[in-house]
Amino acid sequence: MAVYLGAHGIIELTRTSEQNYLDSTLDPADVNVAAKRFSFDFGNNRFMTGDLLQITRMTTAGAISTSNLDFIAAASFPGGSQSPQGQWYVNVDAANGIRLYASWNLALEGGTTNAATLATPASAYPIRVQLKNNDRHILGEVIDYELNTNRETADVTSLGEVFRQRISTMITGSGSCTAFWNYEAYATENRNTSGYNNELSNYLHQLVLRQDLGASFRARFYLKTRFTKPYTSGVPAPNSEQIFYDLTGIITDVGVAFNANEPVRSRINFVTTGQLALLSEVVPSLVLNQTGGTVVQQNSSGNVALQSP
Amino acid sequence: MAKHFTGIDGSLRVDGTQIAKLSEWTFTAETTTLETTSLGDFARQFVPGIQTFAGTATAYYYVSSANVVDGGALYEDVIRISAPNSAATHTILFRLAGTTNREVEFSCVVTSVSISCVVGGLVTSSIAFTASGALTKATMGS
Question: Could you give the 3-state DSSP secondary structure of residue A259?
Fold first, then answer.
């Protein structure tokens, strides 16, 4: 019999707003070219450092404009040329000023060096800002988590029957997690899986307060990661299969408690919305690298190189 | 296959388009009775009279990504600044989906729309309609 310990549990979090968006107007005075910083009319906690925002120039009639977002330099667009729409990671400062970056890591670092170059727009125009699905990040410093799935039933017992009859109806999920409170997300190698960046519980504190865009998130709750080793004897070595719940959740409660002799902990409760799936995937044994235009699939015994002739 | 039906199987279509965000529908069919009891009878006797078909639906007030109000055509039959339509304008189809779909379909007159907005709750609308003419599909019992 194999026994799995909770020490290998992981929550992967994906920032999302589930297609919600915010309409606003960008004024020339909103853009500080020298500081590579701009703002528009949005409230606290609507956007957070590390969010992946899609900014779209709109017409006054509410359609997507054919004019470019002229307040961002062409070289700072993902494709290298201006367009009416683009996506950037953002760093949001305490005064709700925004800087745009090409990657999550750079957005967390902030500063002007790697920020997108801005220009003063020729006129004021409406923009639509949508929070796009971000990369998956490990929720760091988690102490425990639980996920409950509930299947509702309908009683279809008929007259004359002595045992109740039920049929399955709707599926719901809910859960909670506890994490040490911390506020500064970071990019680093994770303990169990390489190349992951970390969200911290303060993001969930902010999420429950987010106004227009809601408090939804996407997550994977792992039952088994590829590094999980069961505590047993006489069974094969653990395979690379990963098993996890994949869900979209909405934060319902966030609590934090201070005790003089204990670390500060965040307690987060959530309910799921939409489909809740229990999935498994086999992690590929090859690692994909790209260096200088060459895509290399690599494992411990050698390389497979795919190269242009 | 033997089967109970639940809300998972239900849907409502207006002019062939399914209402996306519906939480409830009801359908009622009635027949009036005409009494034919004669002197000397000791039990009342009746024959069927005129049929009436009506329904209600409760929907979430929902705007699609194309900025279209879900079921908006029904709202505009009664929430309008011009005179009401002079004839039934929409076709309503109630469906219980299965291996064989069980359906009723009729041309309808929207008799009421009630939109409810409460603090902390979703905006919902209650729509009532009555059929004009005979059912054009009636497979709920077959």
Answer: coil
